[in-house]
Amino acid sequence: MLLKKLKKYNLFLGSQSPRRKLLMKGAGFNFSVLPHIAINENVSEIEVDYEIAIQVAKKKAKSYDKYLQNKHSILITADTIVSINNIILGKPSNYNEASNMLQQLSGNIHYVYTGVCIKTLEKEITFYDKTEVHFRILTSEEINYYITNYTPYDKAGSYGVQEWIGYVGIKKIIGSYFNVMGLPMEKLYVELDNLIQ
Length: 197
Prior knowledge:
197 residues, alpha/beta, seven-stranded mixed beta sheet
Protein backbone atom coordinates (compact mmCIF):
# COMPACT_ATOMS: atom_id res chain seq x y z
CA MET A 1 0.00 0.00 0.00
CA LEU A 2 1.29 3.45 -0.93
CA LEU A 3 0.87 5.09 2.49
CA LYS A 4 2.97 2.34 4.04
CA LYS A 5 5.69 2.69 1.38
CA LEU A 6 5.77 6.48 1.85
CA LYS A 7 6.78 6.17 5.51
CA LYS A 8 10.47 6.11 4.55
CA TYR A 9 10.16 9.18 2.33
CA ASN A 10 10.01 12.91 2.99
CA LEU A 11 7.05 14.18 0.99
CA PHE A 12 7.00 17.90 0.17
CA LEU A 13 4.15 19.97 -1.21
CA GLY A 14 5.28 23.08 -3.08
CA SER A 15 1.99 24.95 -2.80
CA GLN A 16 0.30 27.42 -0.48
CA SER A 17 -3.17 26.42 -1.69
CA PRO A 18 -5.46 25.54 1.26
CA ARG A 19 -7.41 23.24 -1.07
CA ARG A 20 -4.34 21.23 -2.06
CA LYS A 21 -3.30 20.88 1.58
CA LEU A 22 -6.80 19.68 2.45
CA LEU A 23 -6.79 17.12 -0.37
CA MET A 24 -3.36 15.77 0.56
CA LYS A 25 -4.44 15.38 4.18
CA GLY A 26 -7.70 13.77 3.10
CA ALA A 27 -5.76 11.16 1.13
CA GLY A 28 -3.76 10.29 4.23
CA PHE A 29 -0.41 11.71 3.10
CA ASN A 30 2.12 12.83 5.70
CA PHE A 31 3.82 15.82 4.09
CA SER A 32 5.53 19.16 4.69
CA VAL A 33 4.35 22.38 3.05
CA LEU A 34 7.24 24.38 1.59
CA PRO A 35 7.39 28.17 1.86
CA HIS A 36 6.15 30.22 -1.07
CA ILE A 37 8.66 30.97 -3.81
CA ALA A 38 7.55 33.52 -6.39
CA ILE A 39 8.13 32.46 -10.00
CA ASN A 40 7.30 33.87 -13.40
CA GLU A 41 4.31 31.76 -14.48
CA ASN A 42 4.35 32.98 -18.08
CA VAL A 43 4.96 30.31 -20.69
CA SER A 44 5.51 31.04 -24.35
CA GLU A 45 4.31 29.48 -27.60
CA ILE A 46 2.15 26.77 -26.07
CA GLU A 47 -1.11 26.13 -27.89
CA VAL A 48 -2.52 23.24 -25.85
CA ASP A 49 -4.22 24.24 -22.58
CA TYR A 50 -2.98 21.35 -20.47
CA GLU A 51 0.62 21.99 -21.54
CA ILE A 52 0.44 25.42 -19.90
CA ALA A 53 -0.51 23.85 -16.56
CA ILE A 54 2.25 21.22 -16.89
CA GLN A 55 4.93 23.77 -17.77
CA VAL A 56 4.02 26.02 -14.82
CA ALA A 57 4.03 23.00 -12.47
CA LYS A 58 7.53 22.15 -13.75
CA LYS A 59 8.71 25.74 -13.19
CA LYS A 60 7.39 25.60 -9.64
CA ALA A 61 9.20 22.29 -9.03
CA LYS A 62 12.49 23.69 -10.32
CA SER A 63 12.28 26.56 -7.83
CA TYR A 64 12.22 24.00 -4.98
CA ASP A 65 15.22 21.93 -6.13
CA LYS A 66 17.19 22.71 -2.96
CA TYR A 67 14.72 20.67 -0.90
CA LEU A 68 15.53 17.48 -2.83
CA GLN A 69 18.55 16.63 -0.68
CA ASN A 70 18.50 12.83 -0.83
CA LYS A 71 16.88 9.89 -2.59
CA HIS A 72 14.12 9.79 0.02
CA SER A 73 12.76 13.24 -0.86
CA ILE A 74 9.70 13.63 -3.10
CA LEU A 75 8.34 17.00 -4.23
CA ILE A 76 4.85 17.66 -5.58
CA THR A 77 3.86 20.86 -7.38
CA ALA A 78 0.76 21.69 -9.40
CA ASP A 79 -0.95 24.37 -11.43
CA THR A 80 -4.64 24.64 -12.24
CA ILE A 81 -6.14 26.60 -15.11
CA VAL A 82 -9.69 27.24 -16.28
CA SER A 83 -10.37 27.34 -20.00
CA ILE A 84 -13.53 28.46 -21.81
CA ASN A 85 -13.77 28.82 -25.59
CA ASN A 86 -9.96 28.51 -25.77
CA ILE A 87 -9.54 31.47 -23.41
CA ILE A 88 -7.59 30.94 -20.18
CA LEU A 89 -9.18 32.48 -17.10
CA GLY A 90 -6.54 33.22 -14.48
CA LYS A 91 -7.00 34.58 -10.97
CA PRO A 92 -9.03 37.80 -10.82
CA SER A 93 -7.31 40.81 -9.33
CA ASN A 94 -10.47 42.73 -8.42
CA TYR A 95 -14.25 42.59 -8.19
CA ASN A 96 -14.86 43.54 -11.82
CA GLU A 97 -12.53 40.86 -13.16
CA ALA A 98 -14.16 38.25 -10.92
CA SER A 99 -17.62 39.31 -12.06
CA ASN A 100 -16.63 39.19 -15.73
CA MET A 101 -15.21 35.70 -15.35
CA LEU A 102 -18.30 34.35 -13.61
CA GLN A 103 -20.50 35.92 -16.29
CA GLN A 104 -18.47 34.05 -18.91
CA LEU A 105 -18.89 30.76 -17.02
CA SER A 106 -22.61 31.35 -16.41
CA GLY A 107 -24.76 29.03 -18.53
CA ASN A 108 -21.71 27.57 -20.26
CA ILE A 109 -19.37 24.59 -20.25
CA HIS A 110 -15.72 25.08 -19.33
CA TYR A 111 -12.71 22.88 -18.70
CA VAL A 112 -10.38 22.70 -15.72
CA TYR A 113 -6.85 21.40 -16.25
CA THR A 114 -4.40 20.64 -13.48
CA GLY A 115 -0.80 19.92 -14.37
CA VAL A 116 1.22 18.05 -11.75
CA CYS A 117 4.96 17.57 -11.38
CA ILE A 118 6.43 14.90 -9.10
CA LYS A 119 10.16 15.33 -8.67
CA THR A 120 12.95 13.42 -6.97
CA LEU A 121 16.74 13.67 -7.25
CA GLU A 122 16.62 11.13 -10.08
CA LYS A 123 13.26 11.56 -11.79
CA GLU A 124 10.70 14.11 -12.90
CA ILE A 125 7.20 12.90 -13.74
CA THR A 126 4.51 15.16 -15.16
CA PHE A 127 0.86 14.48 -15.92
CA TYR A 128 -2.42 16.33 -16.10
CA ASP A 129 -6.13 15.81 -15.63
CA LYS A 130 -9.07 17.45 -17.38
CA THR A 131 -12.56 18.00 -15.97
CA GLU A 132 -15.61 19.33 -17.81
CA VAL A 133 -17.79 21.65 -15.72
CA HIS A 134 -21.34 22.75 -16.58
CA PHE A 135 -22.69 25.93 -14.95
CA ARG A 136 -26.34 26.90 -14.93
CA ILE A 137 -27.19 30.52 -15.73
CA LEU A 138 -26.26 32.68 -12.74
CA THR A 139 -28.07 35.90 -11.90
CA SER A 140 -26.11 39.10 -11.32
CA GLU A 141 -27.35 39.04 -7.72
CA GLU A 142 -25.90 35.54 -7.22
CA ILE A 143 -22.58 36.54 -8.74
CA ASN A 144 -22.43 39.61 -6.52
CA TYR A 145 -23.32 37.58 -3.41
CA TYR A 146 -20.60 35.03 -4.12
CA ILE A 147 -17.83 37.54 -4.82
CA THR A 148 -18.77 39.71 -1.83
CA ASN A 149 -18.94 36.83 0.64
CA TYR A 150 -16.23 34.50 -0.66
CA THR A 151 -13.69 36.89 -2.30
CA PRO A 152 -12.40 34.30 -4.81
CA TYR A 153 -9.34 36.29 -5.85
CA ASP A 154 -6.94 33.40 -5.25
CA LYS A 155 -8.81 31.01 -7.52
CA ALA A 156 -8.44 30.37 -11.25
CA GLY A 157 -11.69 31.23 -13.01
CA SER A 158 -12.83 33.14 -9.91
CA TYR A 159 -14.60 30.27 -8.20
CA GLY A 160 -14.09 27.40 -5.78
CA VAL A 161 -16.12 24.29 -6.59
CA GLN A 162 -16.27 23.44 -2.88
CA GLU A 163 -17.82 26.81 -2.00
CA TRP A 164 -21.39 28.17 -2.22
CA ILE A 165 -21.18 28.78 -5.98
CA GLY A 166 -20.39 25.10 -6.51
CA TYR A 167 -23.38 23.96 -4.49
CA VAL A 168 -25.92 26.16 -6.26
CA GLY A 169 -24.37 26.88 -9.66
CA ILE A 170 -22.82 23.69 -11.04
CA LYS A 171 -25.21 21.40 -12.89
CA LYS A 172 -22.78 18.68 -13.86
CA ILE A 173 -19.13 17.66 -13.66
CA ILE A 174 -17.57 15.14 -16.01
CA GLY A 175 -14.26 13.95 -14.59
CA SER A 176 -12.52 14.41 -11.26
CA TYR A 177 -14.15 16.74 -8.74
CA PHE A 178 -10.86 16.98 -6.85
CA ASN A 179 -9.13 18.10 -10.05
CA VAL A 180 -11.42 21.15 -10.05
CA MET A 181 -10.36 21.79 -6.44
CA GLY A 182 -6.72 21.79 -7.50
CA LEU A 183 -5.28 18.24 -7.44
CA PRO A 184 -6.37 15.11 -9.34
CA MET A 185 -5.97 12.86 -6.31
CA GLU A 186 -6.60 9.46 -7.89
CA LYS A 187 -4.02 10.10 -10.60
CA LEU A 188 -1.56 11.51 -8.06
CA TYR A 189 -1.95 8.42 -5.85
CA VAL A 190 -1.34 6.05 -8.79
CA GLU A 191 1.67 8.01 -10.06
CA LEU A 192 3.28 8.07 -6.60
CA ASP A 193 2.60 4.36 -6.20
CA ASN A 194 4.28 3.63 -9.55
CA LEU A 195 7.22 5.89 -8.68
CA ILE A 196 8.26 4.07 -5.53
CA GLN A 197 7.64 0.47 -6.59
